[in-house]
Amino acid sequence: MAISGTDPASVRVDSWTWAIRLFKTRSAAAAACRSGHVRVNGTTAKPAQPVKAGDEVRIRAAGVERIVEVVRPITKRVGAVVAVECYADNTPPPPPREVLASIPQRDRGAGRPTKRERREIDRLRGL
User: Fold this and answer.
1) Residue spans per domain, the chain
2) Which GO biological process annotations does it have (predicted)?
3) pTM, whole model, 2 decimals?
4) DSSP states of the chain as a string?
């Protein structure tokens, strides 16, 4: 299915990320832009910042950063099959599970002593 009409030269970044289905609602896309989770060509983007073909958009959501390149700027929300044709996903693959498992986790209470534990340590030291 082709996109009807002529494609605009540039569109708003919040509208484009919503149109290609990276966000469920346009207001969620605008909120992500306002909170600094969306970058266009390395700079933090406001919701109305224009994007054009060839721009790199980085979106940080749920601890994962997606890197997409604008192939075709569109304003209307389209189906998933057509939306994939409008961007190139350059996101690196996630690390293997064994690498994630090897990252040490701190045991609860193993960090800074609590006030109660500090008083016990002071009492034992004779302070």
Assistant:
1) 10-93
2) cellular response to heat
3) 0.72
4) -PPPSPPPSEEEHHHHHHHTTSSSSHHHHHHHHHTT-EEETTEE--TT-EEETT-EEEEEETTEEEEEEESS---S---HHHHHTTEEE-PPPPPPHHHHHHS--PPTT-SSPPHHHHHHHHHHHT-
